[in-house]
Amino acid sequence: MRPVCQILKESKNIAVVGISNKPGRVSGSIAKFLKESGYNVCGVHPLLNNINGIKIYRSLMEIDFEIDIVNVFRRSSSIPELIPDVLKVKPKVLWLQSGIRNDEAVKPVINEGIEVIQNMCISVQLALCS
Description:
Layout: H1 4-10, E1 13-17, H2 26-36, E2 40-44, E3 50-51, E4 54-57, E5 69-72, H3 79-89, E6 93-96, H4 103-111, E7 115-117, H5 122-129
Parallel strand pairs: 1-2, 1-5, 2-4, 5-6, 6-7
Antiparallel strand pairs: 3-4
Helix pairs in contact: 3-4
């Protein structure tokens, strides 16, 4: 696997799965931070349309451009239901945020050659790489 800083440097398009517009949820603020840091950011949430100027898609399958990083803000137990769409869109990286880990669920993703990062905050890593 490439070093995290290299992944972040070489990536342009990030899909934030589980983005929320609720106050106190970090997914929206991290998506905004990524956008302000120069990434092309979109969200994935079945009920939302737009947060802080970030376009929201109902599923990964609706995104009509190549995704470098799928950044996930969902419970560890919800990861298995995301895997089929991740395998179809074939991002370069599946990134599970801090506190999210599911070794069994990500095995098919790893087997397809998609890099997997688990239990790590993308905004903290971006700050460390700057």
